[in-house]
Amino acid sequence: MAITTVDHAYATVAPPPHAGHASNALIKPGYHPRLTNEDLAPLRNQTWTRYNIFAFWMSDVHSVGGYITAGSLFALGLTSWQVLVSLLVGIVIVQFFCNLVAKPSQVTGTPYPVICRASFGVLGANVPAVIRGLIAVAWYGIQTYLASSAFMVLALHVSPGLAPYADVAQHGFVGLSTLGWAAFMFMWVLQAFVFWHGMEAIKQFIDWAGPGVYVVMLALCGYLVWKAGIGNINLNLGGVKVHGWDALPVMLSAIALVVSYFSGPMLNFGDFSRYGQSFDAVKKGNFWGLPINFVFFSLLTVVTTAATLPVFGELITDPVHTVGKIDSTTAVVLGALTFMIATVGINIVANFVSPAFDFSNVAPQHISWRTGGMIAAVGSVFLTPWNLYNNPEVIHYTLDILGSFIGPLFGILIADFYRVQKQKVDVDALYSMSEGGRYWYRNGVNRKAVAALVPAAIIPMLCVVIPALHGAANYAWFIGMGLGYAFYIALNRKG
Question: For position 10, what pLDDT does the model report?
Answer without folding.
Answer: 33
